[in-house]
Amino acid sequence: MKTIGWIVLATLLIALISSVLYYFVHPMFGGSFKGARLERMKQSPNFKNGIFHNLEVTPSLKGDVNMVSLLWDFLFNKNPHLKPISVLPAMECDLAHLPADDVLIWFGHSSYLLKLDGKLIVVDPVFSSNASPIPGSNKAFKMSVDYAAMVFPKIDYLFISHDHYDHLDYETVVKLRDKVGQVICGLGVGAHFESWGYKADQIIEGDWYDQIKLAPDFQVTFTPARHFSGRRFTRNNTLWTSFVLKTSKYSIFLGGDSGYGKHFKKIGDQFGPFDLAILENGQYNDAWHYIHSLPDEWAAETKDLKAKAILPVHSSKFALAMHDWKEPMEKFYDTANKEQITLLTPKIGEMIHLNKLDTVYAPWWREVN
What we know:
Elements: H1 2-25, H2 35-43, E1 47-48, E2 51-52, H3 67-76, E3 103-106, E4 112-116, E5 119-123, E6 155-160, H4 170-176, E7 180-186, H5 190-195, E8 203-206, E9 211-215, E10 218-223, E11 242-246, E12 251-254, H6 263-271, E13 276-280, H7 298-305, E14 309-313, H8 327-339, E15 342-343, E16 351-353
Parallel strand pairs: 5-6, 6-7, 7-8, 12-13, 13-14, 14-15
Antiparallel strand pairs: 1-2, 3-4, 3-16, 4-5, 9-10, 10-11, 11-12
C-alpha cells in the first residue's frame, strides 16, 4: 500500500511540475514588456501602477457575485443548449478571388475579413479548435466548412482588439505570419507578436485616440473599449481597444470586446455616424456585465454610435458563458425589429457587400438544433 501511495504522490508531483513548466515555457503565452515598448506604455494616460485602466471603474464581476458559486455553475450546472447539436451551416470562401468591391466575411465569433479600399484586413482571427491555453477546454463548434484549412492571400493588415485567447490565437497568427504585411494592435500586444517571429517594423501599436493613415483616404483611429486583457494570471498589462476605420466611402466601427459605457457616446459624437458598427453579441452574463454588454444595452450602443447598420459578432463558435448558444442572435434579432435597427445576420462565411448594407438575411440559427 505504501508503494502505491508513493506512486500516486510521484505522479501528482510530476503532473504539477509539468503544468508549471508548460505555463512558463510554452510560446503561446506571449512575450514580455521591456525597453522602448515598456517606456511607451508608461507614457500612456491609461497606464497607472503598472497596468492599463478603463475610462470608468470596471470590476470584472459585480460586487454581490460569489466567485465559487459562479465557477461551480459554469463547470457543473451545464446548460443542455450551451452548444449546438448539429453542425453549423457555413459557406465556403474563395479568398484568392474576392470581388473588386468592398466586402466583409464573418468566420464566427469575432473573426472576420474586410476588403476595404483595396486593402485586405483580417480582424482577431481564431481558426484553431480551442480558445484556451488548456487543451480541449474550450472547443469550437463544428462547422460545415473547415476555415483552418483556408489558404489566405497576402493580408495587408492584421487587426487585434486585445490579447485574450478567443481573439489572439497563437496557432493561427503563427500560421499567417508569412502572409501578414503589418499588425495593428493596442500598446504592449506587439510583444507577443515579436516573440512569435514577427518583425518589429511589422507592428503598429497604438493608444486610445492615436491615429494612423493606411492610405491617403484611409485613416484608422484607436478608440476605447471597456474590457481587460492578459494571457497569464497577470491582468491588464496590454491595452484592449476598438477601432474606427474611415475611407472616402465608408465609416466603420470595430468594437472588439466591451461592456456598455460612456465611451460609446463619446466615439459616436466624435467619429459618427457609422455606416456599419461591428458589435460584441454573446458570452454575456449579468455577473460580468461591466466587461461584456448585455442584450438590453445593444440598442443604446447603436444609438450612441449613430450606427446605420450592425453586424453582431462574438457568438456562434465558442461557449464562454452559460446562455443558450443561439440566444444572442435571437435577442439581437428581436431588439433590431423592435428598435428598427438594420441588422446583418449572414451565415458564417457568407459575403457582405458594403454597398448593400440594407440586404436582409434570414435568421439561419433557427434551422439549427
